[in-house]
What does this fold into?
Amino acid sequence: MKKITAVDIMKMKAEGRKIPVLTAYSAQMAKILDEAGIAMFIVGDSAGMVEAGYENTLPVTVDEIIYHTRAVARGRQNALIVSDMPFASYQVSPEEAKRNACRLIKEGGAEAVKLEGGKRMANTVKAIAEIDIPVMGHIGLTPQSIHRMGGYRVQGKTRTDAEVIMEDAYAIAEAGAFSIVLEGIPGNLAKEITEALSIPTIGIGAGAGCDGQVLVVNDMLGLNCDAKCPKYVKKYADLRTVITKAVGEYIKDVEEGRFPSKENTY
Ligand code: KIV
It folds into this structure.
């Protein structure tokens, strides 16, 4: 397989090919996902929640995203790496946004950046795209806006809200984004946006009408969520149970003197 670029991701939409995307945060996981054929990794600020244990994504720093991006870049061969711009790294001014986007590329090894927000962020998307850094938009349920939204709530449920999200999608595409994440919006709205835009839409909790899909890898592998797992997550494995069982056996083996055995001893 050949190295995938932002241009290839745009071509996939033009050719009617669906785009499988996952988050990645570590070299080991990136290697496994890359070898399995994932086209694009998002080094999401979700790392702050699923890897670092923060309550939400707001405390995540540019340095933390750089750390995870470098790890992912060491593990992957082919997939495109898109790094999240964390809260407060792009909201203050387009100048600061450009500086931080450059850091993610230069110090992290990212090949594109992602930022949250619609119309009001269009100038920032444009500014970053104009310095030749591919930008992915992210609209609908934007986790960095948790305080404004009053929680992680599905967005665009009324006609008026849906129209605002549609305008956001147009604004981000016109600003020069190469693709856009649609999160937590009704499936029919996501389908409408997908049909209206020439750039690929990547859905998370946005139904099957998007050009691609992304999940947080810890969620889909069953590492992260228990009974409270959001409806949009499909668990493709139950690694939490696998790990709990393996560790239980290890504890017993150590306690009862079965590990290390002769084969594990020099
Ligand atoms: O932070 C994240 O992981 C994301 C993706 C799920 C889109 O924003």
Summary: The chain is about 40% helix and 15% strand. The chain has two domains: 6-235, 238-266.
